[in-house]
Every structure is written in C-alpha cells, then in structure tokens.
Amino acid sequence: MKTFREDFLWGGATAANQYEGAWDVDGKGASVSDMCTNGSHTVPKRVTTAIEEGTLYPSHEATDFYHHYKEDIALFAEMGFKTFRMSINWTRIFPTGMEEKPLEAGLQFYDNVFDECLKYGIEPLVTISHYELPYALVEKYNGWEGRECIQYYLNYCETIFNRYKNKVKYWLTFNEINAGTMAFGNVLSTGTIQGYSGPITEVPDSVQARYQALHHMFVASAKAVKMGHEINSDFKIGCMIAFMTSYPYTCNPTDMLEVQRAMRDSNWYCSDVQVRGAYPAFAERFWEENNISLKMEDGDLEVLKEGTVDYYTFSYYMSNCVTLDPGAEQTEGNLLGGVKNPYLKASDWGWQIDPQGLHYTLNEIYGRYNIPLMVVENGLGAVDKLEEDGTVNDDYRINYFRDHIKEMEEAVKDGVDLMGYTPWGCIDLVSASTGEMAKRYGFIYVDKYDDGTGDLSRRKKKSFDWYKKVISSNGKNLN
Questions:
Q1: Per-residue pLDDT for 425 more than 60?
Q2: Which residue of 191, 334, 371, 377 is surrounded by the most CB atoms within 10 Å?
Q3: Long-range contacts: 54-59, Cβ < 8 Å, 24+?
Q4: What is the CATH number of the domain that holds 218?
Q5: Which residues span the domain enclosing 357?
Q6: Residue 391 in domain
Q7: Residue 477 falls inside a structural domain
Q8: Mean pLDDT of 164-183
C-alpha cells in the first residue's frame, strides 16, 4: 500500500503579520494587518484608519520572530522540519508598495532567515502575499480593486524572485485567495484582510468590488508564475485556497444542490482559474445573478492560461453543513461558518473537528485537478494551560493531528499525490480571525498574552516531541 513519499515535506506554517512583529523597524511601512486591533471570541477586532493611542495592535509585536528567528528555526530543526512555510512582509521590502527601490534592510532580514533555514536543511516555502497588503495601496486605490496593484505586486515579486532565486524554490502567490468571496459583509475576515472593500476606506463593500479585485489578483498571480519560471525554471509556484468542505444537512435534493453551489462559489471558482487557467463555466451565471460586470483588459484571459500554478495548496480546519432550512443551528469556522453537524465535536471556538473530511477533501481536489497537493494549514486553536513546571500537556492537539495525519495517509493510499504537510501556527502566534493570543495553535508555547504582556520566552509543549517522532518516522509513528 502507498504511504507518504520519502521526500514528503513535513513542517509548519506561519504568517509574518501574525508572527514577525517589529512592525515599524528599519523603515517598514504599515500593512492592512497593522491597522487591525486586538479582539476576542466575543468582541470583534476593529480596523482603524490611523493608529489609535492606547489601543493594542497585535501584529506590531506579535510573537517577535524578527528578533527570535535563530532560536525559533533551531527549534523547528530540532523537530525535524523538512520545510518551513512563512510569508514575506511586503511592507518590509516596499513600505508603501509604490517605491521604485526596495529597502535593503528588509531584504537582508529575509536573507538571514533563509540562510538560517538552509543551514539546517529546511526548505523555505514562501507565501508572497499573506494578508499583508501595504496600507498605502488601500488608501490610494482601495487595494486590489485598483488595477494599479497588479504592477506594484509584480515589482515586489521581481525583486524577491531575483534576490532569493538560489535560496527559495517553493512559492505561493496569495494566501487564501478565495477569502474575499466568502461571508459577504463580514469584512474583517474577508475583503479587508485581502486589502479592499470595507470600513478601512470610504468605499462601500460590494460584491462587484470584491470580484473585480479578485480578477486583478488572478492576473497578478498568473503573471507572477510566468515571471518566476523565467527567472528560475526550478521554481515551483502554487496557489493557496481556504478550502470550505461542505456536506448536505439532509438528503433533500435541494440541500445537495446547495452544497454543490457552495463548493463552486467558495472553492472551485478561484482554483479553476489558477489551476486550469480559465474561469469555470458556472461563473457566467454567478456574475449575472449577482450583477457583477468584470472589467478585463485585452490579453487578461490569455495571461490566465499562461500562468497556471505548479501545485495546489490549501488550508483545512473543519467542515460545515449546508441547508436552505433557516431554522438549522449555526456554528463557526475559518472565514466562514455554517450549519452544525450533529456527528462532529467542535473546538473551543466552535470549529467542527472532522479528520475524515480531510480525506474526502484531498480526493475531491485531486480528482478535479490531478496535480500535486499540499496541506499548508491545519490545526487546533485551543486554550493551553502553562503548568508550574513550564510544561503544556496538549494531548487534545496531539489527538487532532494524529487523526488528520491518518486520514491524509488514507488519501495517499487512494492515489492522491500529496507533497507535504505544514500544520498552522507551529509556534504560538496571533489569531487572524480574532486578534487574540489565547487561541493557541503551536507546538511551541510563547509567553505572550492578550493584554500585550509576556517575556516572549519559548517553551516546548508535549506536542513538540510527539511531532518530532512523527517526522522522524515519516508518519509511521503516531503514538
């Protein structure tokens, strides 16, 4: 029977805006995430148009990878990481996104990070844009709604592709590019984090604006793929989708059709463009029914065909049910909630835990596209208790990962070409959805709290040594 391939990329995942800190060091400019306040499970975070004195902005320090990168990468190496998924902070390279020349200090920082990874044999997996759009582009163009952002993004890509062409092989153009299509009206977790359409500008949020912005991101991604391959033919450049796995709540055919619609709108719409190189057939009806009229320039559709990705990556945390029954009980999730599944348990934040859903999802994606896949986000946000002796006994996290890895192996046995696995928040960082530290994901505990206090010291959780055994055995030892 098939099992994980010998070169399987075990590792972990982070994002600069949730982890890096040093938000204004060495000339770095403000990103969209730098304008997001803290929040909690019950109190939503806010987006401000200026930094408010006395208000906590979690990304400003986060868990300070900027000053702890050597220590953290050494811990990743101790776990046996084969890859480390991270993002580059666009505004550390181009503070407003519109400069002609990049900041050397920012470029040098990432040189140092990549060198540290490579010293331990860790392959960097770099997300080019992970909710870190320069805030100045939002102010001037409403972010990606303005076509001007395409060229600014490509200037950024050309800079980092050339600078790191001998250090980074694996790239992702946009994190969860489909985020802006979801939960319309919930701008904090959708349009705003991608950098358009919402309360951070005076431009009203609209479906038209979101899908126009998305088209510009598709064009930018395709052009970046083509450029990257020209700069280094060994580059592997992928897409990244926030996969929303949906089940029908009942066997009513209406619910089944509603699931099909949900899967199309939230998942396939974006990945069909990036993998197949064209808008799906169902897009035209969607545009018509939602009064969307995309403005395309001559050559855009040809660009999409020429810039298809090499591999498909996605985040998977949970599944939801779908029904047209307005009385069905609702639950929460990553970017998008849904109807509660009576067969599943949920996390402290209401995200339904569904390992078998990952098996199903891998088969669905691979069956549709037949290109290599990678699970680049998966994990359990939980309240961790730091014991008096400095330990964290997170058996609940170990159980979560064990069950999901088992299902990944089942998908591999089914014939899925799975490249790797990078659990989310391999070290504690700020939650993107709520802006809090209490919702922890990592194998490594960071002494940092919701009020901004903490000495930022690092401690291994129980899951640290467990994941180390998983990697050293290539997924065979899950005890």
A1: yes
A2: 191
A3: 56/451, 56/452, 57/23, 58/18, 58/430, 58/435, 58/436, 58/437, 59/17, 59/18, 59/21, 59/23, 59/31, 59/33, 59/34, 59/430
A4: 3.20.20.80
A5: 9-472
A6: yes
A7: no
A8: 90
Contact 436, 41 (CB under 8 A): yes
Q: Are 319 and 246 in contact (CB under 8 A)?
A: yes
Exposure string for 247-267, b = 16+ CB within 10 A, e = fewer: bbbeeeeebeebbeebbbbbb
Question: Higher pLDDT residue, 366 or 210?
Answer: 366
Domains identified in the chain, total number: 1
Calculated CA dihedral for residues 10, 12, 13, 19, nearest 10 degrees? -160
Say if residue 185's pLDDT is above 50: no
Cβ proximity of 231 and 162 under 8 Å: yes
Nearest alpha-carbon partner for 195 in 47, 21, 59: 47
Q: Find tokens 């890859």 and name the residue.
A: 83
Measured between alpha carbons, how far is residue 199 from residues 46, 131, 196, 356, 451 in Å? Answer: 9, 16, 9, 38, 25
pLDDT of 205 > 80? The answer is no
Reply yes or no on whether 176 is catalytic: yes
Q: In whole angstroms, what is the distance from residue 76 CA to residue 427 CA?
A: 9
Using an 8 Å Cβ cutoff, are 27 and 95 in contact? yes
Strand partners of residue 172: 127, 238
Average pLDDT over residues 56-85: 98
CA quadruple 275, 373, 150, 230: dihedral, nearest 10: -90
Catalytic member of 116, 123, 132, 176: 176
Which amino acid would we find at residue 405? I
Confidence of residue 193 (pLDDT cuts 50, 70, 90): low
Tokens coding 361: 């999802």
- Using CA atoms, how far apart are residues 130 and 179, in angstroms rounded to an integer? 11
Q: Are strands 311-315 and 373-377 parallel, antiparallel or unpaired?
A: parallel
Q: What sign for the dihedral angle of Cα 259, 419, 412, 378?
A: negative
Nearest to 271 by CA among 190, 373, 339: 373
Q: Name the DSSP class of 299.
A: T
Identify the three-state secondary structure at position 375. Answer: strand
**Is 249 contained in some domain?**
yes
pLDDT band, very low/low/confident/very high, at 41 (cuts 50, 70, 90): confident
Would 3 be classed as within a structural domain? no
List, in order, residues 6 or more apart from 138 with CB less than 8 Å away.
Answer: 32, 195, 196, 200, 201
304 pLDDT above the threshold of 60:
yes
CB 391 within 8 A of CB 53: no
Give the three-class secondary structure for 23.
coil
Contact 404, 462 (CB under 8 A): no
pLDDT confidence tier of residue 184, bands split at 50, 70 and 90: very low
- Choosing from 377, 407, 409, 410, the catalytic residue is 377
- Report if pTM > 0.70: yes
Q: Quick count: other Cβ atoms within 10 Å of Cβ 382?
A: 17
Is there a contact between 46 and 33 (Cβ–Cβ < 8 Å)?
A: no
Report DSSP state, residue 200: T
